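User: Here's a chain of 136 residues. Predict its fold as tokens.
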Amino acid sequence: MTTVYIDQDTDGNIRGIYARDQIGLSLVPHDDQEPAIAKFLRDPLGLEDAFPSLKKWQLWLAALELEPPVFKADILSLVNCMADMSLKDKEIVRIMIEDAQEYSRKDPRIDLLAVAMGIPPNQMDDLWKWAAQIEP
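Assistant: Prediction complete.
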């Protein structure tokens, strides 16, 4: 446990976290392990909320909605044919595709998959947000 000093707005949203009290600011000491504080320290820009993790089935159902649809087997085949990747790197991507239970938009291999699917980064961002809304 480390004590940190929190600056919050009137709605209770964290604006800043400091290691020690600051002159001129009305800060409240807190434990840095409190969930909201730990999340802010891990993700100060709120990107986790902007791009929540996707479950495996959400990503691949979203890929089927593209025109033309993207099939997981086709992506695995494309990765296998990438001449500039080592066998180990290909296996890492295959494991990520087939065995991961969730995907993070921040994972750079997602951008590799987007390239393999022919999806520009901004379209992948939109697809990601849309896929996060898919319910079972």
